[in-house]
Amino acid sequence: MENLDFALQVLVLGFLVVLVTLFGLFGLLILFNRIFYRPSVTSPEVEDAGEKKPVQQVDSLEGNRRVIAAIQAAVFQYMQTEQAHAFAGPINIAVQPTGGKVGSSWKFIGRKELLESSLELENTRRKK
Known about the structure:
mainly alpha, flat
């Protein structure tokens, strides 16, 4: 029983020392942040130059889908070539939606492949 009391005292004392040390380090971080933090000051000329450029608003969802589709198609085309290291020229890929929702056929193909692969995985698990 004496060892248990001593062990609990050491545990509580160690925990308190660690917490006090961490709070002290946190305080130092806050102190250094207040001392050395300097907000960036930009000159009016730089601000004016940034405002002169017109911002083009594009339908982000549609644009992102097309960009993602083009990147996926380019990677797929690149990986299908027998000599992946030999670059013959630029790959031209046109992305056109195929009726209905944009990219719906790709979604269905991906879902079908996912179901087929999960069925394959289940069959291999059953064979073991």
